[in-house]
Structures are given as C-alpha cells and as structure tokens.
Write a structure and sequence with these properties.
Length: 560
C-alpha cells in the first residue's frame, strides 16, 4: 500500500476493485464504512455483488474479466473532459503522450458493450474518482481537488494479465495526481498475514531483502560482504507454479514447503499432486498435517503465530512485533530455529567453514538486527522502536519516524512512468461446452486453505463448507434446487458441491471459495497461461459447466 489504513476514513472517494474487503479484510472495511458515513463516495467495480456494495454510492457490476475496459474508458473520459491533473502529470511523470495514444479506442460505449455496465455509470465513476468528489460537499483535506484512493486485491492480480492491469490502475492514479497525499494512492490489500513481510525480506524469486534485485551486481556484492557469503545467486529463481512444472518434467527433484498447502491453494490440483509425487524428496514444515503433508517424506512440526516471537509486516508496510501467548506443543519449534539447524547441517555436509556461531542466533531480536543491516527500508528499526505500534517502512535511519504514505516528495525512480497497455481478454472464455464463468475467493469465516479455520467448531458451525454460489437462473436451467448437489466441470476436472442460490452472482457466473477440502476449487483452475511477469495463474476466471447429478442435465450452450 502506498498509503495507511487509517487514512481511508478521511478519503473523499475510494475506488474498490477486485476486492471483497468486508469478508477478506474486515478491519480495513471498517475504515471504508467510516469514510462512507462521513460522506465519502465509495465506488465498487466487481463481477459479484460483494457486501461492500451496501455502503457504495456507485456499483459497476462487470462481466468477469472486463474491468480493464472500464478502467481504460474511465481514463478516456478523464482526458476528454479535462479532468486530468495536468500540473502533476507535467512535473512528476513521463511517457504521458504515448500512453494517451492508446486510449482513443476505449470509448465508454465500447466499454459498456464489453463489460455490461452502462455508459452513465462509467462516466460517473471517472468524474467522481478524478475529482475526488464527496457525497457531502468539499474535501475534508481543504484541497481544490479531493483525495481519491484505489483499493484492489487478488481479483486484479490473480489474472493472466494481472501485471498489466496493475499498471493500468497506476496510470489512472498518476493521470489524476491521486498519489503522494493522505487518503490517496494505490493500495493492494495483501492476502495473508505477513505476506508483505515475507516479500520485504527476500521471500521472492527475483530479489534479496529490501527488494534489491538478484541481478544487481553492486547491491548483491554488499549483501555478500555483510553475510560473509561469496557468490550469492545472480539468477532469478522459479515461482511456485513454475516449480510444479519443473517437478513434473524431472528438472526439480526436491521441494521444501513451509507454511503453505499447494494441494489446496495451487491451480490444477491434479497436476500439483502429480508433481509432488514425482519428487525424490518432499519436506513439509507446518503447524498441522495438511493436505500437502500427506505426500511428504518428512514433516517438521512448527510453532504457530501465537507460540512464537518475531515480526509481522502488515499490508500498510507496518512492521510489528509478535509475542508468544501460549507454549508450543510437543517438539514444535519456531521456523527460524528449524531453518538454522538445517543450515548448520548443510554447511557440515558441504564442508563450508563459517565464523563460530554464524547460525547461532540468540533469539529473534538478533535475527532482526542482522536483517536491518541488509534491508535499507528497515534500516532504522529495532525491537525497541517497534514494540508498541510498529513502524512503517521506509524507515532508513534510527531517528526516522517511518512513512505513513509514499511519494510525497516524488517517486523512487525519479518520475512516474506511464505504461501504454492494451486490454487483454482472459485466457478462458465461456463457450458452448463450458458456458459459465467460475470465480474463486474467500468467505468471512474461513481462511485460505482452511488448515486452521476449519478445525474450529465455531467457525465451521457459522459457515459449513462445500457450497457454490449460483444464480437461480442458471440453477433452474438444469433443474437444480437450492441446497441440492451439483457437479462443476472444467477442462481440468470436476468437483461436487452444494448449490447455494445467490443474487450476489449474476447469471452466467458461479463462485466457489477455495477453503473446502470436500469441494476443492483448484481442481478446476488452470496453470497453463500465467501472467508473463509475475507468473501468477488465472484463479479468478475459469470456464465451467454445471451438471445436475440427479437428472444428468448440464448447463445449456451460450445460445441455449
């Protein structure tokens, strides 16, 4: 996030797209509701009628995968009507003219045809966002132009063109100068606790801690010196889906899975199982024996978040200290302790001699101190400074107060770069054989692959699993009754679930959360067409058909 969570309560306009914030990020949703009650305009762009629509002043219910046409049309309108922030664009950006040349074809009429959203709504969304309009008068910030924020999540990024869509949203943000101020910016809502922190400290295939590129010889040399480890890898590694393909073709023989459950969370589960079974050696380190652990050669019991100390970095870049609440059971250890012990044994087997105590950290505080020496954005932090409310990076020096919002004094790269982008359709579109679109996600009472939340009797009672949301029109077409069994077919496989009639999904769209072991959504999704940059699969758009198992009736073709 470029901005802070509590800033959202004072935003004049919040554009929410590809995010079911009320269910997936409920704490953040409270701030959005506060903003709405104080007179902010809330714009929701989504294929589903997510709960936040109840607080929205404008809802654009798009056909799945067509949001990109709406975004492009909004920018077309903003340019046409003179709503762009010309001063910001001239002083702080580059590449604007080349970007404008791509907008001509994306008229609001074209976007309406592609998305199913009316021209009037697209024009209203463009005007409200660009000008930071409030329902209740002038901006609370006292600026001539109100402050607008964009919030998005995996409905945007888990797409075969997700990187391009994020660039399009960045173009929209810069075009209107809605960045570098409180209550503005680009605000991706991260999907799991501490996923931001994992990325910050190097848990990605292309960077070392602090987002320093592995291909940057100069920065890599500094890290090599501080770690006393020459010849650190300079080659970008393989992402999780790519690794799955590598295991299948035999080019990867060992996999170490820590705190993850690819048998539930990765696309095309049938292929994932084949890949994991093809390995010579699979290690799973986790707090419970999950679905992936059933295939492991060795399981290493780890401590849970409530049983360990350390730091979590949340979605607003806030580094916070974690304290244990209960002791770990049995032989479970903290993840860093397990990793350090394995590293010691690697050194022994490889004959690598290091300084005495190299892997013998006294505690998590010692690890964090070492981390700050190689992570410039964390450079001014220590346990003493973060123990109360934490600090937001970048925090480069010991007297730096942290950074509530980014780019107040300009962009990191110098000038913000406009990227000319052409709209791309999803990899799979409905056809006569698979005439419906499946989209996946989460529900309020459960989390990710259900490894933790589905063990809670109270949460399971609140929302029992294995159901798929279907519009009554699609259900009636094959004679389904509410709460009856239904089979969902895709080109990868089939899943049986309970049909739950819902007006949240329009005709032609079905929604299945990926928490349910008994109805695993990712049996249906594909891992063939990935985003070319981020290598993320298209979880959000899969062509499917429904089958009534009692009558064998299937979803009629598109013209049926």
């Amino acid at each position: 996030m470029t901005n802070s969570i509590n800033e959202m309560r004072d935003a004049d306009c919040i554009l929410m797209t590809g995010t079911n914030t009320a269910e997936n990020h409920p704490v953040i949703s409270y701030e959005v509701v506060r903003a709405a009650r104080k007179g902010a305009n809330i714009i929701v762009i989504d294929p589903r009628r997510v709960p936040m629509v109840d607080n929205a002043t404008l809802f654009l219910q798009i056909k799945p995968g067509t949001d990109v046409y709406v975004f492009m049309a909004m920018m077309h309108i903003i340019h046409r009507e003179g709503w762009a922030n010309d001063t910001f664009v001239a002083e702080q950006t580059e590449g604007y003219d080349a970007f404008l040349a791509t907008l001509e074809q994306y008229t609001p009429e074209y976007a309406a045809l592609m998305s199913g959203v009316s021209v009037d709504k697209i024009e209203a969304a463009a005007r409200i966002y660009a000008n930071g309009e409030r329902v209740s008068g002038k901006s609370v910030h006292g600026d001539e132009r109100g402050h607008s924020a964009i919030m998005y999540a995996m409905g945007i990024t888990q797409r075969s063109s997700g990187t391009d869509i994020v660039k399009i949203l960045a173009n929209l943000t810069m075009m209107c100068g809605q960045i570098g101020k409180p209550g503005t910016g680009m605000n991706p809502l991260r999907g799991q606790a501490n996923v931001q922190g994992a990325c910050d400290v190097g848990g990605l295939v292309n960077v070392y801690p602090g987002y320093q590129q592995v291909t940057d010889d100069e920065k890599r040399a500094v890290i090599e010196q501080k770690w006393a480890t020459p010849n650190l890898p300079s080659k970008v590694g393989r992402t999780i889906v790519e690794a799955s393909h590598d295991a299948t073709d035999g080019s990867m023989r060992v996999n170490y899975v820590m705190g993850e459950n690819p048998m539930m969370s990765d696309p095309d589960t049938t292929h994932v199982e084949k890949a994991l079974r093809a390995l010579d050696f699979l290690v799973v380190q986790d707090i419970f024996a999950n679905d992936t652990a059933t295939l492991a050669h060795i399981i290493l019991p780890a401590a849970s978040a409530l049983e360990k100390d350390g730091t979590f970095t949340n979605t607003e870049r806030r580094v916070q200290q974690l304290h244990p609440v209960v002791p770990s059971p049995g032989t479970a250890r903290q993840d860093w302790q397990i990793t350090a012990e394995i590293a010691k044994r690697f050194d022994e087997k490889m004959g690598i001699v290091r300084s005495e105590g190299y892997w013998d950290f006294a505690d998590s505080s010692a690890i964090f101190d070492e981390l700050t020496t190689v992570t410039p954005i964390y450079g001014g932090m220590d346990y003493g400074r973060i123990q109360e409310e934490g600090l937001q990076w970048p925090c480069p020096t010991a007297d730096h107060p942290g950074t509530p919002f980014l780019y107040e004094d300009g962009f990191t790269r110098g000038k913000g770069k406009f990227h000319p982008v052409i709209a791309q359709d999803p990899f799979e579109s409905p056809d006569d054989e698979y005439p419906l679109t499946l989209t996946t996600g989460r529900v309020l009472y459960h989390y990710h692959s259900g490894t933790m939340t589905r063990r809670s009797k109270r949460l399971d009672w609140a929302d029992k699993g294995g159901y798929v949301e279907i519009n009554a029109v699609d259900a009636e077409a094959i004679g389904l009754k509410d709460n009856s069994a239904v089979v969902i077919h895709s080109r990868r496989g089939k899943v049986k679930a309970r049909a739950r009639f819902s007006e949240s999904v329009p005709p032609g769209v079905v929604f299945l959360a990926f928490h349910w072991r008994e109805s695993p959504a990712n049996v249906l999704t594909q891992d063939i067409k990935l985003d070319p940059v981020a290598k993320i699969p298209e979880y959000k758009i899969t062509a499917v058909r429904l089958e009534n198992p009692r009558t064998k009736a299937v979803s009629p073709p598109l013209d049926g």
